[in-house]
Structure formats: structure tokens, C-alpha cells
Amino acid sequence: MTEDAHRAYHQHLLGRMADVLGLDLDLEVDLTRLSRAQLDRAVEKCMHCPDPTGCEIWLEEHAAGTHEAPQLCLNKNLLEHLRDSY
Questions:
Q1: For 49-80, what is each residue's pLDDT tens digit?
Q2: Neighbours of 42 (CB within 10 A)
Q3: Closest by alpha carbon to 67, among 47, 84, 53?
Q4: What is the rounded distance in angstroms from the CA atom of residue 18 to the CA atom of residue 14?
Q5: How big is the CA angle at 21 (ends 16 and 66), to the nearest 5 degrees?
Q6: Of 20, 60, 66, 85, which residue is most buried, by most CB within 10 angstroms?
Q7: Rounded distance, CA 31 to CA 28, Å?
Q8: For the segment 8-34, what is each residue's pLDDT rounded down to a tens digit?
Q9: What is the DSSP string of the chain?
């Protein structure tokens, strides 16, 4: 997988994780609750996930939505902070 494809894959996973938690990351950026730099760092963190297949399985199992990110998510704190700040 090329670096660009790897990054795009993890951007997709991060976006799905946000969706499952009821977040819209583009809106968070528009509302200045999340900077583009923070979003880029979150994608970078996601790219270092030790178990992206496990993440995909979790996302499928929680497609209807949930309140907490899984323990395996390297962006758990950021996503839950955004969710809790409403």
C-alpha cells in the first residue's frame, strides 16, 4: 500500500469512528473546536494503530452508534473530549 493510500485508509477509519460517536470532524474544524493540525495528528496516530482490522470489526459491530470509542483506538481521548464538550 502506498503512503497516500495508507493515509487515506486511516482518514476513512477515523471518519467512521467519529461518525459512530456522533461527531462530524469537518464540522468540528469549521467550528474551530478542532484545528486542521490536530486532525492531521489524529490521522497520523490512526496510521500507527496496531489493529486496524480489529477497528474495522468494531466499527461494523457499532455501526448504529455508541457513546465510547474502543480501548484500542489511539484517538479515544480526543474523540471523547470532542463528544463531551457539547
A1: 999 999 999 999 999 999 999 999 999 999 99
A2: 21
A3: 84
A4: 6
A5: 110
A6: 20
A7: 5
A8: 999 999 999 999 999 999 999 999 999
A9: --HHHHHHHHHHHHHHHHHHTT--HHHHHHTTSS-HHHHHHHHHHHHT-S-HHHHHHHHHHTTT--SS--TT-TTHHHHHHHHHT-
